[in-house]
């Protein structure tokens, strides 16, 4: 059964180095950035939560926000049980999109920063969340170098790392999450652990490749999406749970809890990791 990056070679690549900073090809980063900028302009809510019946702008915004509030409430309930983080000043939402989770996190922290690779997503987040205790920032580099070490009490990322173009990028950002986390802070991030066989994804891959070719030729992204039903690429990576745990150990992190689950669409199995620095307390 084909498992993409869940194959043994991909797992070994994830664990190969301790520093987590092997360069990611610039072409991969550019293509990923362009795809998410297109998603941010044509159907941002659906790109974030891909409910089949809500494509083409059919999401109800209040329901969309409410799901974010419910998710963060569950995460913070787990955090309270674990006894982390020690502070509630600064939180980071990595891959914030339009701010669905960032605004919900602002109920629990004094200030929240949302970062996203897509300028169009950040524009929407800023427009949709006026007057909130949130700051939204475009983060194009393959790191979090704009932030100092030990900046955030809480770092959260869900439905994001799986869309990075390479395993190297996932590895880099996990290391970066820990770098910017305060001592006694809490990192929580989600990653798929198992994907359906590759053959089940080939039809979508054909549509994304056709979209990319026509987009490069100058065709309008909205026309390709709305009239031809073609879509920008949405990468899906997965890493077995044992590989993520091994890498966290290499980074010197302390894993507090792992929660499993399954996405309704595509039979994607997933895990959420609750982590702190090994000297966190």
Q: Report the biggest beta sheet as strand number plus sense, adding barrel if it closes.
A: 7 strands, mixed
Low-confidence parts, pLDDT < 50 over ≥5 residues?
Answer: 1-5, 7-21
- How much is the average pLDDT? 88
Oligomer state equals single chain
Estimate the helix proportion, in percent.
40-55%
Distance between the termini: 43 Å
The sequence of SSEs as H and E is HHHHEHEHEEHEHHHEE
Question: Judging from the principal axes of the Cα atoms, what is the shape?
Answer: globular
Rg, rounded, reads 18 Å
Strand percentage: 15-25%
Strand order of the largest sheet: 3-2-1-4-5-7-6
Number of strands: 7
Counting DSSP H or I runs of 4 or more residues, the number of helices is 10
Structural class of the secondary structure composition? alpha/beta
Mind explaining what this structure looks like?
With 281 residues, the chain is of the alpha/beta class. The chain is 40% helix and 20% strand. The protein contains ten helices and seven strands. Helix 1 runs parallel beside helix 7 and helix 2 packs parallel to helix 6. It is globular and about 55 Å long.
List the helices and strands and how they pair.
Elements: H1 8-15, H2 26-42, H3 44-48, H4 61-82, E1 90-94, H5 100-105, E2 111-116, H6 119-128, E3 134-138, E4 152-157, H7 167-180, E5 181-194, H8 202-216, H9 221-226, H10 241-250, E6 253-262, E7 269-277
Parallel strand pairs: 1-2, 1-4, 2-3, 4-5
Antiparallel strand pairs: 5-7, 6-7
Helix pairs in contact: 1-7, 1-10, 2-6
């Amino acid at each position: 059964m084909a498992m993409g990056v869940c194959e043994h070679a991909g797992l070994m690549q994830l664990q190969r180095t301790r520093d987590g900073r092997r360069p990611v090809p610039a072409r991969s980063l550019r293509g990923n950035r362009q795809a998410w900028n297109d998603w941010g302009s044509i159907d941002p809510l659906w790109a974030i939560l891909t409910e089949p019946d809500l494509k083409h702008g059919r999401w109800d915004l209040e329901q969309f926000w409410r799901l974010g509030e419910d998710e963060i409430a569950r995460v913070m309930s787990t955090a309270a049980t674990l006894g982390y983080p020690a502070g509630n000043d600064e939180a980071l939402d990595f891959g914030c999109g339009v701010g669905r989770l960032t605004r919900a996190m602002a109920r629990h922290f004094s200030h929240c920063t949302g970062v996203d690779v897509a300028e169009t997503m950040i524009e929407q987040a800023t427009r949709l969340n006026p007057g909130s205790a949130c700051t939204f920032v475009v983060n194009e580099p393959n790191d979090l170098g704009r932030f100092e070490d030990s900046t955030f009490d809480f770092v959260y990322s869900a439905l994001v790392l799986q869309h990075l173009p390479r395993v190297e990028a996932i590895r880099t950002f996990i290391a970066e999450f820990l770098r910017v986390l305060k001592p006694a802070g809490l990192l929580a991030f989600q990653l798929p652990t198992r994907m359906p066989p590759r053959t089940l994804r080939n039809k979508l891959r054909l549509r994304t490749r056709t979209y990319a070719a026509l987009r490069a030729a100058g065709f309008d992204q909205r026309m390709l999406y709305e009239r031809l039903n073609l879509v920008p690429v949405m990468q899906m990576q997965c890493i077995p749970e044992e590989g993520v745990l091994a890498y966290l150990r290499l980074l010197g992190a302390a894993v507090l809890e792992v929660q499993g689950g399954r996405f309704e669409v595509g039979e994607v199995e997933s895990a959420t990791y609750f982590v702190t620095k090994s000297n966190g307390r």
